[in-house]
Amino acid sequence: MSTWHLVDPELRPTLQSWTPSTLQADALPALREQRQQAALQAMHLDDGLSLVMHEQHIAGNSGEPAVRVRVITPTARRANRMGILHMHGGGHLFGSPEQSLSLTRPTAAHHDCVVVSVDYRLSPETRFPGSLNDCYAALVWMAENAAQLGIDASNIGLMGDSAGAGVAAALALLARDRKGPKLAFQNLMFPMLDDRTVVETERNPVTGEFIWTRENNAFGWRALLGCEPGSVDVSPYAAPARADDLAGLPPTWIGVGTLDLFLDEDMAYARRLMRAGVEVELNVWPGAYHGFNSDPQASIAQRARETRQNWLARFNR
């Protein structure tokens, strides 16, 4: 069914410029390059924020390549800032720290905190657990080098969007299970959590028409897993919704729109977190599709951005 009539009216102008497309493996390199070049050009524009940025290559897991991170720090030097490890979105197929600066730079400035954004390896060139290993290496590095980064090692949290939010949720599970760095929070915008959404038989009739479709979701999961989504042996560290035990995870914020393909899996995960005794705030925006929060003008997108930042402010001590 068409869900255009359900879209928030202020979001419709942006959506009208969207051209539906089905992802193909041979088109990925060119699309990645196009998006990255646009992001690099935008980096030269002055956003008026007093921040210092630098990139660094840190040691990966044993036998794996170095991991590139972009570190964003307020200009004024200070110790014991809140630290945020950020994972970009892109369906496990696209994205980079540079393509997420419209989120990470304002976040660092607004909270006077340090943001470390991870350039994790993408699929299908790198299957699971490559991206998760990269992000875990970055988390350990961030905790071990907290003093040099000006971070309070006891106040490090995770932030991600879409596939990056799914990686963040998996990273929270992995850090808990490995008894790694203790996390203060996880901030997840429309997280990609469950490969079984691809094969569900009772589909939500109003989700997944726009931006991130069911077809693209299937492509993204196949690229990450190297097998069919819904297979019995998929790891919960790839698809966090498959985890049996969610106890002991940090306070969690989840945001999603009612037209987003991930609506049902996100609400189910939030409910399970609550039942496991985890502090959760779930925000659901009516008439919002996947990625709606990037709209520069729509009031619902502005409210979503503000709500997300207001929740983060609770941890900025």
TrEMBL record:
Domain Alpha/beta hydrolase fold-3 per the UniProt entry, residue ranges: 84-292
Q: Which Gene3D superfamilies does the annotation name?
A: alpha/beta hydrolase (3.40.50.1820)
Q: Which Pfam families match?
A: Abhydrolase_3
Keywords annotated in UniProt:
Hydrolase
Task: Name the InterPro entries on file.
Answer: AB_hydrolase_3, AB_hydrolase_fold, GDXG_lipolytic_enzyme
Fetch the PANTHER family from UniProt: AB HYDROLASE SUPERFAMILY PROTEIN C4A8.06C, ALPHA_BETA HYDROLASE FOLD-3 DOMAIN-CONTAINING PROTEIN-RELATED
What is the name listed in the Swiss-Prot or TrEMBL entry for this protein? Alpha/beta hydrolase fold-3 domain-containing protein
